[in-house]
Amino acid sequence: MEIKERTLTQLWISKKDSSAHKGRIKWWIALKNMSFCHNIINISCVKSSWSNDVRASLYSLMMIIILTTLVGNLIVIISISHFKQLHTPTNWLIQSMATVDFLLGCLVMPYSMVRSVEHCWYFGEVFCKIHTSTDIMLSSASIFHLSFISIDRYFAVCDPLRYKAKISILVIFVMIFISWSVPALFAFGMIFMELNIKGAEQIYYKHTHCVGGCSVFFSKTSGILAFMTSFYIPGSIMLCVYCRIYFIAKGQARSINDSNPKLQIGLEEKNRISQSKDRKATKTLGIVVGVFLICWCPFFVCTVMDPFLDYTIPPTLNDTLIWFGYLNSTFNPMVYAFFYPWFRRALKIILLGKIFQKDSSRSKLFLESS
To answer: Does the keyword Endoplasmic reticulum apply (predicted)?
Structure first.
């Protein structure tokens, strides 16, 4: 703080112009009331000026989001890992996504919370790069999992006879490997090689970079690349697959209704369960697509537009949209698990402590034919 006081005094004395003297007084008073992340104010980021009540409210809200994300995804992980009846290819993909979302809530969100509330980064520049890379990697990996789950559901609903042949355990593991490796290479490569600021170095170091901060910055090229890789391509896959499933399911229902009455009666019982599963899969996937677009679309649109708007989007708005995107990981276990009866039964067993009983892993959570 000594350096801060000396710098202010020198600026005060150096101003001899009486017309600028009054303006300098106002500036000096305002600067005196500011808090900085570093003691050298001309290179430091400015701390948030929120009151303690506002900070406490923000911390409470973010802690609720973090805890909900951790608990919800941890229950999904435990359920699928423990109960043998849930050991299916689709559920391994869901479990992998739950692991991604759990790690996002465990490794990324707490540090993002401090940065968002305080507007300062207290954990060093190297860890800033690690945190930013991990943030981009896990957020993108979660979105990749969503797109692969939509593909899995497409084959289950639209080509059920060949589903097991096409979507084997090996295929699921390949999907999981791609969902982890591609975002990891993209995120860590971009941040540690500083490809995200390539072409906009002067703007970044002159107007954006400051000591004690850890903001995510993209140039025009890297912003478009991040938008395409992490949002547009997987999002388009999800949207197209959902539309395809919806129209196929609708066509199948119409075909059954228009068939011969005797044949219809004969097929009714046979197709009842299949139709119910199709409707549930279509409805669930529709909710997934809607939640995904609502949570992530605002952030990625701002990310790709900000460089073309000369970085005029306020950092506070960007932080808010990041947390809005995090909510997708909070809602994922609710959408994919809470909508299914087997999850509610698994949750009851876990909460009552029956999971520690002998042979609890063989508990029947649903009828095999249902």
So the answer is: yes
Indicate the pLDDT class of residue 76, thresholds 50, 70 and 90.
very high
Q: Is the dihedral of CA 294, 299, 300, 301 positive or negative?
A: positive
Rounded Cα–Cα distance for residues 289 and 150 (Å): 9
Task: Please report the sign of the dihedral spanned by the C-alpha atoms of residue 7, residue 9, residue 10, residue 12.
Answer: positive
Confidence of residue 259 (pLDDT cuts 50, 70, 90): low
**Domain regions of the chain by residue span:** 77-362
Q: Which residues pair with 44 in a beta bridge?
A: 211
Residue 295: CB atoms within 10 Å? 21
**CATH superfamily, region 77-362:** Rhodopsin 7-helix transmembrane proteins (1.20.1070.10)
Average pLDDT of the chain, as a whole number: 83
∠ Cα 72 76 82 (to 5°): 140
